[in-house]
Amino acid sequence: MNRIANHLLSAAMMLLPLISIAGSQDEVPLTVVHWNDLHAANVAKQRVVQGDTVMTGGVAALGGYLNHYRSTLPNVMTVNAGDDYQGTPISTLTEGRSQVALLNLLKPDVFAVGNHEFDYTEDVLVEGMQEATFPVLLGNVVREEDGMTIFPPDTILTFGGVKVGIISVMTRRFREVTTKAATQGLMSLPAEETVRASLDRLIPLTDIQIVVSHSGVDEDSVLASNIGPDVDLIIGGHSHSLLWDPLFVNDIPIVQAGSRGRWIGVIDMVVDTLEDKVVSFEARVENVIVGTYPEDAAVAELVHDQESQLADEMDKAITVAEVPLKRSWDGSESNIGNWIADSFREAGDADIGAINQHGIRANVDEGPLTVREVFEVSPFGNTLVRFSLTGAQVKDVARFQASEGSGRLQVSGLNYHIKAGQLISISIGGEDVVDDKKYSVVTVNYVTDHIDHYFGLEQTEVDMEPLYLVDRDVMIAASKKQDTIHPKVEGRFLIEE
User: Fold this and answer.
1) Nearest to 37 by CA among 78, 80, 98
2) Which of 139-153 are b and which e, b meaning 16 or more Cβ less than 10 Å from the residue's Cβ?
3) How many CB atoms lie within 10 A of CB 193?
4) What phi and psi, each to the nearest 5 degrees, are found at residue 379?
5) Residue ranges in 130-270 assigned as alpha helix (H)
6) What's the pLDDT score for residue 405?
7) Which residues pair with 439 in a beta bridge?
8) What are 401-436's pLDDT values in tens digits?
9) How far apart, in whole angstroms, are the C-alpha atoms of residue 24 and residue 8?
10) CA distance 379 to 27
11) C-beta separation of 34 from 242 below 8 A
């Protein structure tokens, strides 16, 4: 009996290492590499990073980072959180197809549709994404006629035995941040409702659940507060937030990696597939610096081919900027905003020109101003619209604008002073505004589509006259009339608490 007992004991001791190994296999490492809001910034740019002047961004360098992680780590999931379209001429002129071709080479495991993917209309988006070789998701935008989604709301991917449920949602302000033409026949559902419906399907089938949200940090925080413990991670986009460290809300980490391919986020986690939970989590953001890893050669070749087709026309200098043209997104006046509003007012033969601050998408350096730079300043291809307001309405608009902060309009022809909510002075063309006099206003169709947000007016209060002039064409034409441009901040509006 002792020999038998000793034999069984020896056999059990021999099995202990195997039991330990099997237990460790339940805990699987998973690395998530994510980026968002590239806005077709396919070409690297020179920037200063930590005091050094380096080339940063560009999809060839981004591809190099993806290749590095895929080749050096066992289980890597790559996620694009939307708005790859819109921002440079190549996306505009190809209606986003340039980006689909590049994404096919970058091979994201998930692409979550952003609001700017709709800029060329739903039909163009759907047609372009038929060429995609990667999963395209969007859960909470549906067709009004039948309530059907355009793309799948979620999917399941497996990495090293870890089953990952991935859910995609977009900002509840989808229709507010996109033109009416682009969102015709579409509506957005509450993100929480969509996420819960997907979780009901995914939880029995997956180890962890990740939301890829093109909604911005504020909406992501609300979602995390309400959704409960079944979401393990929110990967964000839309607000262009650079979160060097994850934001934890309701114990759910929220991450986002800036914009324009300048950064990528890297998350190292360990997942317990037996307990279906994340047992280790570390997240960071890395600068994408050219030369850190070898560029992806196929991506570099395609970028070169795409840009070469545009170079002759896009790199033409049309005038000279004697000063840097700098935008402002904090509600203050900017010299580039004044220049654009001036060009609109002149082209539309109007009393007032206006442009929304967030519609100005790039700064311009001092020196020759090229067609390409104008496209980057105004990539959306919005068109000019003219309408009339009474002087009394203009005064109301000025008071409304005083409360709008970052939603404030840059203006031309209009000067006003608001103090503690009171209108101190207001003039158009240097003359005091008369209440019952009619004044013409020119702005872009995006602003008139959301006239309640920008002017505090209802659509029924104004008659819109489309001018069929593309905003950037107007800016180019205005530039060609001048050998140099040197717009200034002139105190066109003064708002005091």
Assistant:
1) 80
2) bbbbeeeeeebbbeb
3) 12
4) -85, -10
5) 180-183, 191-202, 217-227
6) 65
7) 389
8) 988 765 789 999 999 999 998 999 999 999 999 999
9) 25
10) 46
11) no
395, 389 in Cβ contact below 8 A? no
Those residues whose C-beta lies under 8 Å from the C-beta of residue 28, and which sit 6 or more positions away, are 75, 159, 160, 161, 162, 270, 271, 273
At residue 235 the predicted structure's pLDDT band, cuts being 50, 70 and 90, is very high
pLDDT in tens, 356-384: 999 999 999 999 999 999 999 999 989 99
DSSP assignment, residue 206?
-
Decide if 443 contacts 385 (C-beta within 8 A). yes
Q: In the prediction, which pLDDT does 14 show?
A: 38
Whether 333 contacts 410, CB under 8 Å: yes
pTM higher than 0.85 = no
The percentage of residues in the chain with a pLDDT greater than 70, rounded to a whole number, is 95
Query: Helix 297-314 and helix 59-72: axis angle, to 10°?
Result: 170
**Sheet arrangement for strand 76-80:** 136-137, 110-112, 76-80, 27-35, 263-272, 277-287
Give me 325's structure tokens: 């043209």
Q: How much is the pLDDT for 459?
A: 86
Alpha-helix residue ranges (DSSP H) falling in 164-269: 180-183, 191-202, 217-227
Q: How far apart are CA 309 and CA 412, in angstroms?
A: 36
Instruction: Report the helix count and the strand count for the chain, using DSSP H and E.
Output: 15, 28
Q: At what angle do helices 122-129 and 97-106 cross, to 10 degrees?
A: 30
pLDDT 10s digits, 426-484:
999 999 999 999 999 999 999 999 999 999 999 888 999 999 899 999 999 999 999 99
Which of 362, 368, 366 has its CA nearest to residue 317? 368
Phi-psi region of 491 (alpha: psi -120 to 50; beta: other; left: phi over 0): left
H or E stretch covering 15: helix 2-25
Task: Supply φ then ψ for residue 95, to 5 degrees.
Answer: 50, 45
Average pLDDT over residues 122-138: 97
Instruction: Convert the pLDDT of each residue in 255-273 to its tens digit.
Output: 999 999 999 999 999 999 9
Q: What is the distance between the alpha carbons of residues 111 and 104, in angstroms, rounded to a whole number?
A: 11
- Kindly state the tokens that stand for 483: 């050998």
What's the one-letter identity of residue 491? Answer: G
Q: Note the pLDDT of residue 3.
A: 41
